[in-house]
TrEMBL record:
Position of the signal peptide: 1-18
Keywords (A to Z) from UniProt: Cell inner membrane, Cell membrane, Membrane, Signal, Transport
PROSITE patterns hit by this protein: PROKAR_LIPOPROTEIN
Protein name (record): Aliphatic sulfonate ABC transporter substrate-binding protein
Primary location group: membrane
Localization (cell): Cell inner membrane; Periplasm
Species assigned in the record: Virgibacillus kekensis
Length: 333
């Protein structure tokens, strides 16, 4: 497995792309010797991608002779750019980036989910934060502006506590950075609160630099929103639905493997995260993170629409979104 490369085209603050063969044309269902590339993030929500890669499950479902590559991403914007340019043919991304790019004109389909849950709001020890009401004047961090975890956090804060980001005239300062750095940023006091995808919330807990302020069930859309969705291009769905079915079948096999073999799936997650990020996570951290996540390929379009409405309400989207056509569940039935 290749180690992560240095920052090349996208500033990723140390968590960079391991491009293992992007930019190839997708194989047609009857073609031999073609390549496809699947993308995912080194987060627990994306374990299906790790399992599919490690167990070579896409190779079992794709046409004979197809070469399967994997590319790792630090954030949704980088992933969606790669999908739109054809550098990858599909993979796992947060629902926020998928929705945002779709409403901006990207011709994509969500064809399955990857997981639900896994977002935790962590407060830095010593920041004087006991409840969310204490966040006025504080600095919070998320992976990207308008990403899934950002929208979940800001929706909760606005709807339940009447506190908003300075981006829309409110009292909280917002910065961004990769989740693997949040523990060190807590230690240095650079941020007060983090809206964190697992396993990085459990890392903060284990290291003792922060405490859970709001756990997964109480974050906006915490247990119903897909934490990761499997997306591909509308062009691929239209022109080669058999190939898309083969890709989704591999993803389904990976999800079912996680459900039926959680202990082995956890070991794979530890191994792949170490390879991708050079951070070794303990079994205790993975066990803790696992409790906050439900691995499923079933996807509910209505929940995504509600989430999109929240993103518009927070002014991440200029126009009220209409997600009709985004979700295509025909490949998971």
């Amino acid at each position: 497995m290749k180690k992560f490369l240095s920052i090349i085209a996208i500033a990723v603050l140390g968590l960079v792309l391991a491009a293992c063969g992007g930019g190839n044309e997708a194989s047609g269902s009857g073609d031999k010797g073609k390549e496809i590339t699947i993308g995912y993030f080194p987060n627990i929500n994306h374990v299906a991608g790790m399992v599919a890669e490690e167990k070579k499950l896409h190779s079992e479902t794709l046409p004979d002779g197809t070469t399967v590559n994997y590319q790792y991403f630090p954030d949704g914007s980088a992933f969606m750019t790669a999908l739109e340019t054809g550098d990858i043919q599909g993979g796992l991304v947060g629902p926020g980036p998928a929705m945002n790019h779709f409403t901006s004109g990207a011709e994509i389909h969500v064809v399955a989910a990857g997981s639900t849950g896994g977002t935790v709001i962590m407060a830095r020890k010593g920041a004087g934060i006991e409840t969310p009401e204490d966040l006025k004047g504080k600095t919070f961090i998320s992976p990207r502006v308008g990403c899934t975890h950002d929208v979940q956090f800001e929706t909760m804060m606005k709807e339940e506590y009447g506190i908003t980001s300075s981006r829309i005239g409110g009292e909280m300062k917002h910065v961004t950075g990769k989740p693997a750095t949040y523990h060190s940023m807590f230690v240095t006091g650079n941020v007060d609160v983090a809206t964190v995808p697992e396993p990085w919330a459990s890392v903060i807990e284990a290291e003792g630099s922060g405490e859970v302020l709001v756990d997964t069930p109480d974050v906006a859309y915490g247990e119903t929103l897909p934490a990761a969705v499997f997306v591909t291009s509308q062009d691929l769905v239209k022109n080669d639905p058999e190939l898309v079915q083969s890709i989704v079948d591999g993803h389904k096999k990976a999800t079912e493997f996680i459900q039926n073999n959680p202990d082995e799936a956890k070991k794979i997650a530890i191994k792949k995260i170490k390879e991708i990020t050079d951070q070794k996570l303990s079994a205790d951290v993975i066990d803790n993170a696992w409790e906050r996540i439900n691995f499923t390929y079933e996807v509910n379009g209505d929940v995504l629409q509600d989430f999109a409405n929240s993103s518009h309400d927070l002014k991440f989207l200029k126009e009220k979104p209409d997600l009709e056509g985004l979700v295509d569940t025909s490949f998971i039935k």
